[in-house]
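User: My instructor asked us to take a sequence, write out its structure as tokens, and then describe one feature of it. I'm not sure where to start. Here is the sequence I was given:
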Amino acid sequence: MHGTSSAPPALDALGTGGAYRSRNREVVHDVRGEPIAELSLVPWLFAQRSIQALRRATPPDPERRKKLL
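Assistant: Let's start with the prediction itself. The structure tokens for your sequence are:
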């Protein structure tokens, strides 16, 4: 990204309803201090509900898991 003036890619949070782009964002820098990404910072409640949904979900069978990976 050295020498480019383009904005870093926005990384949206993923929730049960799909991508979530928040107003609160955090720029991630590489070891040289250059911006490489912009993360969506989610509210506490969004994170808690997403974790609860993951815990309630039935895991895919081993064959499906292999395909997903």
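For the description part of your assignment, you could build on this observation: Residues 10-68 form one domain. Try explaining in your own words what that tells you about the chain.
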